[in-house]
Protein backbone atom coordinates (compact mmCIF):
# COMPACT_ATOMS: atom_id res chain seq x y z
CA UNK A 1 0.00 0.00 0.00
CA UNK A 2 1.44 3.38 -1.03
CA UNK A 3 1.70 6.00 1.72
CA UNK A 4 1.28 9.37 -0.03
CA UNK A 5 2.06 12.77 1.46
CA UNK A 6 -1.14 14.91 1.53
CA UNK A 7 1.04 18.04 1.32
CA UNK A 8 2.68 16.80 -1.90
CA UNK A 9 0.92 14.12 -3.90
CA UNK A 10 4.14 13.47 -5.85
CA UNK A 11 5.86 12.36 -2.62
CA UNK A 12 5.39 8.68 -1.75
CA UNK A 13 6.70 8.10 1.76
CA UNK A 14 6.89 4.35 1.28
CA UNK A 15 4.97 1.17 0.61
CA UNK A 16 3.59 -0.74 3.57
CA UNK A 17 2.28 -4.26 4.02
CA UNK A 18 -1.45 -4.97 3.96
CA UNK A 19 -2.45 -7.85 6.19
CA UNK A 20 -5.56 -9.98 6.31
CA UNK A 21 -7.60 -12.24 8.53
CA UNK A 22 -4.88 -14.93 8.63
CA UNK A 23 -2.36 -12.40 9.96
CA UNK A 24 -4.75 -11.38 12.71
CA UNK A 25 -5.15 -15.00 13.71
CA UNK A 26 -1.38 -15.53 13.87
CA UNK A 27 -0.96 -12.38 15.94
CA UNK A 28 -3.69 -13.40 18.38
CA UNK A 29 -2.16 -16.85 18.77
CA UNK A 30 1.23 -15.29 19.51
CA UNK A 31 -0.32 -12.97 22.06
CA UNK A 32 -2.19 -15.77 23.80
CA UNK A 33 0.98 -17.85 23.99
CA UNK A 34 2.85 -14.96 25.61
CA UNK A 35 0.06 -13.97 28.01
CA UNK A 36 0.60 -16.42 30.92
CA UNK A 37 4.20 -15.40 31.56
CA UNK A 38 3.76 -11.70 30.82
CA UNK A 39 0.57 -11.23 32.85
CA UNK A 40 2.05 -12.80 35.98
CA UNK A 41 5.66 -11.67 35.54
CA UNK A 42 7.56 -8.99 37.38
CA UNK A 43 6.29 -5.44 37.23
CA UNK A 44 9.82 -4.04 37.01
CA UNK A 45 10.26 -5.60 33.58
CA UNK A 46 7.10 -3.86 32.38
CA UNK A 47 8.23 -0.54 33.80
CA UNK A 48 11.70 -0.81 32.29
CA UNK A 49 10.38 -1.69 28.82
CA UNK A 50 7.89 1.19 28.80
CA UNK A 51 10.52 3.63 30.03
CA UNK A 52 12.90 2.58 27.24
CA UNK A 53 10.15 3.07 24.67
CA UNK A 54 9.34 6.53 26.02
CA UNK A 55 12.99 7.56 26.13
CA UNK A 56 13.63 6.59 22.51
CA UNK A 57 10.49 8.35 21.30
CA UNK A 58 11.52 11.54 23.07
CA UNK A 59 15.10 11.31 21.79
CA UNK A 60 13.80 10.97 18.21
CA UNK A 61 10.91 13.42 18.43
CA UNK A 62 12.16 15.69 15.62
CA UNK A 63 12.66 12.78 13.22
CA UNK A 64 9.39 11.08 14.12
CA UNK A 65 7.57 14.40 14.06
CA UNK A 66 8.74 15.05 10.51
CA UNK A 67 7.48 11.61 9.46
CA UNK A 68 4.14 12.21 11.16
CA UNK A 69 3.70 15.64 9.53
CA UNK A 70 4.65 14.20 6.17
CA UNK A 71 2.06 11.41 6.21
CA UNK A 72 -0.81 12.98 8.20
CA UNK A 73 -0.53 16.64 7.23
CA UNK A 74 -0.43 18.46 10.56
CA UNK A 75 2.31 21.07 10.85
CA UNK A 76 5.79 20.08 12.00
CA UNK A 77 5.48 21.84 15.41
CA UNK A 78 2.15 20.11 16.08
CA UNK A 79 3.59 16.77 14.96
CA UNK A 80 6.69 17.08 17.14
CA UNK A 81 4.44 17.99 20.06
CA UNK A 82 2.34 14.90 19.45
CA UNK A 83 5.43 12.69 19.40
CA UNK A 84 6.62 14.20 22.68
CA UNK A 85 3.22 13.48 24.17
CA UNK A 86 3.50 9.85 23.10
CA UNK A 87 6.92 9.56 24.75
CA UNK A 88 5.60 11.06 27.97
CA UNK A 89 2.63 8.69 27.93
CA UNK A 90 4.94 5.66 27.86
CA UNK A 91 7.01 7.10 30.69
CA UNK A 92 3.90 7.87 32.74
CA UNK A 93 2.71 4.28 32.44
CA UNK A 94 6.18 2.99 33.24
CA UNK A 95 5.52 4.50 36.65
CA UNK A 96 1.94 3.23 36.77
CA UNK A 97 3.18 -0.32 36.22
CA UNK A 98 4.77 -0.05 39.67
CA UNK A 99 1.78 1.61 41.32
CA UNK A 100 -1.07 -0.83 40.71
CA UNK A 101 -2.89 -0.77 44.03
CA UNK A 102 -5.39 -3.01 45.76
CA UNK A 103 -7.35 -3.08 49.01
CA UNK A 104 -7.14 -5.18 52.16
CA UNK A 105 -10.44 -5.20 54.01
CA UNK A 106 -11.88 -7.05 57.00
CA UNK A 107 -14.84 -9.28 56.30
CA UNK A 108 -18.09 -8.80 58.18
CA UNK A 109 -17.42 -12.36 59.34
CA UNK A 110 -14.83 -12.61 62.12
CA UNK A 111 -11.50 -14.23 61.31
CA UNK A 112 -11.73 -13.72 57.57
CA UNK A 113 -9.66 -11.31 55.43
CA UNK A 114 -10.60 -9.85 52.06
CA UNK A 115 -8.17 -8.82 49.30
CA UNK A 116 -9.28 -6.79 46.29
CA UNK A 117 -6.76 -6.78 43.46
CA UNK A 118 -6.54 -5.86 39.79
CA UNK A 119 -5.42 -8.34 37.13
CA UNK A 120 -4.83 -7.98 33.37
CA UNK A 121 -7.91 -8.40 31.19
CA UNK A 122 -5.97 -10.62 28.73
CA UNK A 123 -5.30 -10.05 25.03
CA UNK A 124 -6.53 -6.68 23.83
CA UNK A 125 -7.21 -5.49 20.30
CA UNK A 126 -6.38 -1.84 19.72
CA UNK A 127 -7.78 0.05 16.72
CA UNK A 128 -6.58 3.63 16.26
CA UNK A 129 -7.50 6.50 13.88
CA UNK A 130 -5.39 8.53 11.48
CA UNK A 131 -5.61 11.97 13.06
CA UNK A 132 -3.22 11.29 15.96
CA UNK A 133 -1.12 8.46 14.53
CA UNK A 134 1.32 8.12 17.41
CA UNK A 135 -0.34 9.72 20.47
CA UNK A 136 -3.56 7.70 20.38
CA UNK A 137 -1.74 4.38 19.80
CA UNK A 138 0.52 5.34 22.72
CA UNK A 139 -2.34 5.98 25.11
CA UNK A 140 -3.79 2.58 24.24
CA UNK A 141 -0.62 0.48 24.01
CA UNK A 142 1.18 1.86 27.07
CA UNK A 143 -1.51 1.11 29.69
CA UNK A 144 -2.31 -2.23 28.07
CA UNK A 145 1.30 -3.33 28.54
CA UNK A 146 1.73 -1.64 31.92
CA UNK A 147 -1.09 -3.68 33.44
CA UNK A 148 0.17 -6.97 32.00
CA UNK A 149 -1.93 -7.44 28.88
CA UNK A 150 -0.76 -8.60 25.46
CA UNK A 151 -1.58 -6.45 22.45
CA UNK A 152 -2.66 -6.77 18.83
CA UNK A 153 -2.54 -3.30 17.28
CA UNK A 154 -4.29 -2.26 14.07
CA UNK A 155 -3.48 1.33 12.94
CA UNK A 156 -5.40 3.42 10.41
CA UNK A 157 -4.66 2.79 6.73
CA UNK A 158 -3.71 6.41 6.04
CA UNK A 159 -0.81 6.54 8.54
CA UNK A 160 1.18 3.29 8.39
CA UNK A 161 4.54 5.05 8.71
CA UNK A 162 4.06 6.29 12.26
CA UNK A 163 2.61 2.94 13.34
CA UNK A 164 5.55 1.07 11.84
CA UNK A 165 8.09 3.39 13.47
CA UNK A 166 6.40 2.99 16.86
CA UNK A 167 6.23 -0.79 16.50
CA UNK A 168 9.91 -0.91 15.56
CA UNK A 169 10.81 1.00 18.73
CA UNK A 170 8.63 -1.29 20.83
CA UNK A 171 10.24 -4.36 19.24
CA UNK A 172 13.61 -3.36 20.74
CA UNK A 173 12.37 -2.52 24.23
CA UNK A 174 12.86 -5.96 25.74
CA UNK A 175 9.32 -7.31 25.57
CA UNK A 176 9.01 -11.09 25.21
CA UNK A 177 7.95 -12.33 21.78
CA UNK A 178 4.20 -12.16 21.25
CA UNK A 179 3.47 -9.51 23.87
CA UNK A 180 3.08 -6.80 21.22
CA UNK A 181 1.86 -7.43 17.67
CA UNK A 182 1.21 -5.10 14.73
CA UNK A 183 -1.20 -6.02 11.93
CA UNK A 184 -1.79 -3.39 9.24
CA UNK A 185 -4.61 -3.54 6.74
CA UNK A 186 -8.12 -2.45 5.90
CA UNK A 187 -10.60 -1.99 8.71
CA UNK A 188 -13.25 -4.03 6.94
CA UNK A 189 -10.93 -7.07 6.99
CA UNK A 190 -8.23 -6.67 9.65
CA UNK A 191 -10.34 -4.59 12.01
CA UNK A 192 -13.35 -6.86 11.65
CA UNK A 193 -11.24 -9.97 12.18
CA UNK A 194 -9.81 -8.44 15.34
CA UNK A 195 -13.23 -7.53 16.73
CA UNK A 196 -14.67 -10.96 15.95
CA UNK A 197 -11.74 -13.10 17.11
CA UNK A 198 -12.58 -15.30 20.11
CA UNK A 199 -9.00 -14.91 21.36
CA UNK A 200 -9.44 -11.16 21.88
CA UNK A 201 -10.69 -10.41 25.39
CA UNK A 202 -11.19 -6.66 24.95
CA UNK A 203 -11.23 -4.07 22.17
CA UNK A 204 -10.37 -0.39 22.42
CA UNK A 205 -11.51 1.56 19.36
CA UNK A 206 -11.19 5.20 18.32
CA UNK A 207 -12.94 6.24 15.12
CA UNK A 208 -16.28 7.08 13.60
CA UNK A 209 -19.64 6.70 15.31
CA UNK A 210 -21.00 4.26 12.73
CA UNK A 211 -18.05 1.88 12.94
CA UNK A 212 -17.87 2.26 16.70
CA UNK A 213 -21.44 1.07 17.11
CA UNK A 214 -20.68 -1.98 14.94
CA UNK A 215 -17.62 -2.73 17.08
CA UNK A 216 -19.69 -2.46 20.26
CA UNK A 217 -22.41 -4.76 18.94
CA UNK A 218 -19.90 -7.40 17.86
CA UNK A 219 -18.04 -7.31 21.17
CA UNK A 220 -21.16 -7.42 23.32
CA UNK A 221 -22.51 -10.33 21.27
CA UNK A 222 -19.53 -12.49 22.24
CA UNK A 223 -18.96 -11.03 25.72
CA UNK A 224 -15.76 -9.11 25.04
CA UNK A 225 -15.03 -5.91 26.92
CA UNK A 226 -15.23 -2.79 24.73
CA UNK A 227 -14.13 0.83 24.92
CA UNK A 228 -15.12 3.39 22.28
CA UNK A 229 -14.01 6.94 21.53
CA UNK A 230 -16.05 8.29 18.63
CA UNK A 231 -17.32 11.62 17.36
CA UNK A 232 -17.81 15.11 18.64
CA UNK A 233 -19.67 18.27 17.71
CA UNK A 234 -18.02 20.36 20.34
CA UNK A 235 -19.49 23.71 21.40
CA UNK A 236 -17.55 26.82 22.36
CA UNK A 237 -19.59 29.50 24.13
CA UNK A 238 -18.56 33.17 24.02
CA UNK A 239 -20.42 35.40 26.47
CA UNK A 240 -20.81 39.18 26.32
CA UNK A 241 -18.34 39.62 29.19
CA UNK A 242 -15.57 37.58 27.53
CA UNK A 243 -12.18 39.04 26.72
CA UNK A 244 -12.62 39.37 22.94
CA UNK A 245 -8.96 38.75 22.07
CA UNK A 246 -8.85 35.62 24.24
CA UNK A 247 -12.13 34.33 22.79
CA UNK A 248 -11.06 34.86 19.20
CA UNK A 249 -7.71 33.16 19.64
CA UNK A 250 -9.03 30.12 21.48
CA UNK A 251 -11.78 29.67 18.87
CA UNK A 252 -9.26 29.91 16.02
CA UNK A 253 -7.05 27.36 17.75
CA UNK A 254 -9.91 24.99 18.49
CA UNK A 255 -11.58 25.18 15.11
CA UNK A 256 -8.71 25.29 12.63
CA UNK A 257 -5.41 24.06 14.03
CA UNK A 258 -4.53 20.46 13.17
CA UNK A 259 -6.71 21.30 10.14
CA UNK A 260 -9.76 20.89 12.36
CA UNK A 261 -9.15 17.15 12.28
CA UNK A 262 -9.51 16.57 16.02
CA UNK A 263 -12.43 14.94 17.77
CA UNK A 264 -12.13 17.72 20.37
CA UNK A 265 -12.18 20.58 17.82
CA UNK A 266 -14.82 23.30 18.24
CA UNK A 267 -17.05 23.55 15.20
CA UNK A 268 -20.06 25.16 16.96
CA UNK A 269 -19.30 28.67 18.21
CA UNK A 270 -22.24 29.84 20.32
CA UNK A 271 -22.09 33.59 20.91
CA UNK A 272 -24.37 35.91 22.88
CA UNK A 273 -25.85 38.84 21.00
CA UNK A 274 -24.02 41.65 22.83
CA UNK A 275 -20.60 40.56 21.52
CA UNK A 276 -21.77 38.70 18.41
CA UNK A 277 -20.99 41.28 15.72
CA UNK A 278 -17.55 42.19 17.07
CA UNK A 279 -16.68 38.54 17.56
CA UNK A 280 -17.66 37.48 14.03
CA UNK A 281 -15.68 40.32 12.47
CA UNK A 282 -12.61 39.64 14.59
CA UNK A 283 -12.66 35.86 14.10
CA UNK A 284 -13.19 36.22 10.35
CA UNK A 285 -10.15 38.47 10.16
CA UNK A 286 -8.13 36.05 12.31
CA UNK A 287 -9.23 33.12 10.15
CA UNK A 288 -8.08 34.85 6.96
CA UNK A 289 -4.62 35.32 8.52
CA UNK A 290 -4.09 31.57 9.04
CA UNK A 291 -1.34 30.50 6.68
CA UNK A 292 -2.07 27.27 4.84
CA UNK A 293 0.77 25.28 3.31
CA UNK A 294 3.07 22.26 3.26
CA UNK A 295 3.12 20.65 6.69
CA UNK A 296 6.93 20.72 6.86
CA UNK A 297 7.32 24.33 5.73
CA UNK A 298 8.36 26.97 8.27
CA UNK A 299 5.74 29.50 9.30
CA UNK A 300 2.74 27.41 8.24
CA UNK A 301 -0.24 27.47 10.63
CA UNK A 302 -2.39 24.80 8.99
CA UNK A 303 -1.47 21.89 6.76
CA UNK A 304 -3.60 20.01 4.24
CA UNK A 305 -6.63 17.84 4.80
CA UNK A 306 -5.50 14.23 5.19
CA UNK A 307 -6.97 12.70 2.02
CA UNK A 308 -9.03 13.25 -1.12
CA UNK A 309 -12.05 11.64 0.54
CA UNK A 310 -11.81 13.94 3.56
CA UNK A 311 -11.42 16.99 1.31
CA UNK A 312 -14.52 15.99 -0.62
CA UNK A 313 -16.47 15.60 2.61
CA UNK A 314 -15.38 19.03 3.84
CA UNK A 315 -16.33 20.68 0.54
CA UNK A 316 -19.72 18.96 0.59
CA UNK A 317 -20.49 20.41 4.03
CA UNK A 318 -19.41 23.88 2.90
CA UNK A 319 -21.92 23.63 0.06
CA UNK A 320 -24.58 22.39 2.48
CA UNK A 321 -23.95 25.33 4.81
CA UNK A 322 -24.38 27.81 1.98
CA UNK A 323 -27.57 26.11 0.78
CA UNK A 324 -28.99 26.15 4.30
CA UNK A 325 -28.52 29.92 4.46
CA UNK A 326 -25.47 30.35 6.67
CA UNK A 327 -23.32 33.37 5.74
CA UNK A 328 -19.81 32.49 4.55
CA UNK A 329 -17.43 35.07 6.08
CA UNK A 330 -14.04 33.41 5.52
CA UNK A 331 -12.56 30.62 3.43
CA UNK A 332 -14.73 28.13 1.63
CA UNK A 333 -12.37 27.29 -1.23
CA UNK A 334 -9.28 25.23 -1.99
CA UNK A 335 -5.86 26.85 -1.65
CA UNK A 336 -3.13 26.65 -4.29
CA UNK A 337 0.33 25.95 -2.91
CA UNK A 338 3.74 25.22 -4.43
CA UNK A 339 3.02 21.49 -4.28
CA UNK A 340 -0.17 19.69 -5.22
CA UNK A 341 -1.99 18.64 -2.07
CA UNK A 342 -5.34 18.56 -0.32
CA UNK A 343 -5.30 22.20 0.76
CA UNK A 344 -8.47 23.90 1.97
CA UNK A 345 -8.83 27.39 3.39
CA UNK A 346 -10.11 27.52 6.97
CA UNK A 347 -13.81 28.20 6.61
CA UNK A 348 -16.08 30.22 8.88
CA UNK A 349 -19.86 30.59 8.67
CA UNK A 350 -21.89 33.18 10.57
CA UNK A 351 -25.64 33.55 11.15
CA UNK A 352 -26.13 29.79 11.34
CA UNK A 353 -28.85 28.09 13.35
CA UNK A 354 -28.66 25.07 15.66
CA UNK A 355 -30.82 22.97 13.33
CA UNK A 356 -28.51 23.27 10.32
CA UNK A 357 -26.60 20.16 9.27
CA UNK A 358 -23.30 21.97 9.69
CA UNK A 359 -24.22 22.33 13.37
CA UNK A 360 -25.58 18.80 13.83
CA UNK A 361 -23.11 16.52 12.02
CA UNK A 362 -19.39 16.10 12.56
CA UNK A 363 -17.47 17.53 9.60
CA UNK A 364 -13.95 16.71 10.85
CA UNK A 365 -12.25 19.48 8.92
CA UNK A 366 -11.40 23.20 9.13
CA UNK A 367 -15.04 24.34 9.05
CA UNK A 368 -16.77 26.17 11.91
CA UNK A 369 -20.03 28.07 12.26
CA UNK A 370 -21.24 30.79 14.60
CA UNK A 371 -24.67 30.67 16.26
CA UNK A 372 -26.22 33.80 17.80
CA UNK A 373 -28.04 33.34 21.14
CA UNK A 374 -29.73 35.75 23.50
CA UNK A 375 -28.02 34.94 26.79
CA UNK A 376 -26.19 32.31 28.83
CA UNK A 377 -29.28 30.19 29.42
CA UNK A 378 -29.97 29.87 25.69
CA UNK A 379 -26.30 29.22 25.05
CA UNK A 380 -26.28 26.32 27.51
CA UNK A 381 -29.41 24.85 25.94
CA UNK A 382 -27.78 24.94 22.49
CA UNK A 383 -24.58 23.43 23.93
CA UNK A 384 -26.45 20.40 25.20
CA UNK A 385 -28.72 20.02 22.16
CA UNK A 386 -26.54 17.42 20.45
CA UNK A 387 -26.09 13.66 20.32
CA UNK A 388 -22.42 14.15 21.24
CA UNK A 389 -20.74 15.10 24.50
CA UNK A 390 -16.96 15.03 24.25
CA UNK A 391 -15.61 18.52 24.96
CA UNK A 392 -17.21 21.91 25.62
CA UNK A 393 -15.77 25.35 26.28
CA UNK A 394 -16.79 28.76 27.54
CA UNK A 395 -15.13 32.15 27.23
CA UNK A 396 -16.20 34.41 30.08
CA UNK A 397 -14.82 36.54 32.90
CA UNK A 398 -17.73 35.56 35.16
CA UNK A 399 -16.96 33.08 37.90
CA UNK A 400 -20.70 32.49 38.25
CA UNK A 401 -21.19 31.40 34.65
CA UNK A 402 -17.91 29.48 34.48
CA UNK A 403 -18.83 27.48 37.58
CA UNK A 404 -22.36 26.78 36.37
CA UNK A 405 -21.09 25.74 32.92
CA UNK A 406 -18.57 23.27 34.33
CA UNK A 407 -21.37 21.53 36.18
CA UNK A 408 -24.14 21.68 33.59
CA UNK A 409 -22.41 21.26 30.22
CA UNK A 410 -23.13 17.68 29.14
CA UNK A 411 -19.58 16.83 28.13
CA UNK A 412 -16.80 14.66 29.45
CA UNK A 413 -14.30 17.53 29.32
CA UNK A 414 -14.93 21.23 29.93
CA UNK A 415 -12.59 24.15 29.25
CA UNK A 416 -12.87 27.68 30.64
CA UNK A 417 -11.07 30.35 28.57
CA UNK A 418 -9.07 27.62 26.85
CA UNK A 419 -9.41 25.80 23.51
CA UNK A 420 -11.64 22.72 23.62
CA UNK A 421 -8.77 20.73 22.08
CA UNK A 422 -5.82 19.98 24.33
CA UNK A 423 -5.88 17.49 27.19
CA UNK A 424 -2.83 16.59 29.29
CA UNK A 425 -1.49 13.05 28.98
CA UNK A 426 -1.93 12.21 32.68
CA UNK A 427 -5.66 12.97 33.01
CA UNK A 428 -8.72 11.00 31.87
CA UNK A 429 -9.95 11.51 28.30
CA UNK A 430 -13.49 10.75 27.15
CA UNK A 431 -17.01 12.00 26.73
CA UNK A 432 -20.69 11.32 27.15
CA UNK A 433 -23.66 10.40 24.97
CA UNK A 434 -22.62 9.43 21.42
CA UNK A 435 -19.00 10.46 21.86
CA UNK A 436 -17.77 7.67 24.13
CA UNK A 437 -18.76 4.28 25.45
CA UNK A 438 -17.09 2.49 28.31
CA UNK A 439 -14.45 3.67 30.74
CA UNK A 440 -12.07 6.60 30.21
CA UNK A 441 -8.72 6.54 28.44
CA UNK A 442 -5.44 8.03 29.71
CA UNK A 443 -4.11 8.64 33.19
CA UNK A 444 -4.83 6.39 36.14
CA UNK A 445 -8.39 5.87 34.88
CA UNK A 446 -7.01 3.64 32.11
CA UNK A 447 -6.82 0.85 34.71
CA UNK A 448 -10.62 0.61 34.63
CA UNK A 449 -10.51 -0.81 31.10
CA UNK A 450 -7.22 -2.70 31.01
CA UNK A 451 -7.72 -4.61 34.26
CA UNK A 452 -10.37 -6.75 35.89
CA UNK A 453 -11.09 -6.76 39.62
CA UNK A 454 -10.68 -9.89 41.74
CA UNK A 455 -12.02 -10.35 45.27
CA UNK A 456 -10.27 -13.05 47.35
CA UNK A 457 -11.16 -14.35 50.82
CA UNK A 458 -8.79 -15.97 53.32
CA UNK A 459 -9.69 -17.75 56.54
CA UNK A 460 -7.16 -16.70 59.17
Automatic annotation (TrEMBL):
* Record-stated family: Belongs to the aldehyde dehydrogenase family.
Q: What is this protein called?
A: Aldehyde dehydrogenase family protein
Q: Which SUPFAM superfamilies match?
A: ALDH-like
Keywords carried by this UniProt record: Oxidoreductase
Respond yes or no to whether keyword Oxidoreductase is given for this record.
Answer: yes
Annotated ranges, domain Aldehyde dehydrogenase: 2-455
Active-site annotation: 229
Q: Does the keyword Phosphoprotein apply?
A: no
**UniProt organism field:** Caldimonas mangrovi
Which Gene3D superfamilies does this chain map to?
Aldehyde Dehydrogenase, Chain A, domain 1, Aldehyde Dehydrogenase, Chain A, domain 2
